[in-house]
Amino acid sequence: MMIVMQKDKSIKPVAKAKAPQLRATQARKEVTHERILEVAARAIRRSGYDGTGVADIMKEAGLTHGGFYAHFASREALLAEAADRARAEALGWTAQVFEAAPKGQGLQALMQAYLSDEHMNGVERGCAVSAVGSEMHRQAPEVRHVATQHIQQLIDIVAKQIPEGGDRGAHDEAMVRISAMVGTVVLARAVDDPALAKSLREAALKYFAPVGE
Fold it and tell me: Which DSSP state fits 76?
């Protein structure tokens, strides 16, 4: 016996046209999310964590304050993601410096770039550790965790450029160099005497210059 199945006309087919619309909506949301992060990452380095407000970030991104919670659960969540964005940008910049440097000159190239006028004056595009390092201990755990990852990864990437067999191990040498670079930039930005700021950076470069130069 053959059973003939009749189509139930009361059941409406799923509207397939909604899928592309949903994808387009999601894509727009992701673009907006990235724009907020980009603005926040710059604002943190420019104004510090405590000087970075949600309303100001949304305004700079060209968005309304009310749309914030469609992207982030809290201000701390935004700061953590923005700090991670700044971390990725800084590590990418460091890798580019090493790649562009002649063989065996990566460390000196990094110090010259880090202590340059361009990096010292370009706070909102530069390294977040030297820009807001003094504020990190007062931030939420998720923000401090990102900062810790940034510093650890920076140590690792610099250590790979240091030949083994020196007076200090590569890891220790990397920590010393990074501490000197960050500390020098912090001091150079702190003073209101351009000549002193320049002397601080030149002294650091001279101290870590290869033997014989």
Answer: H
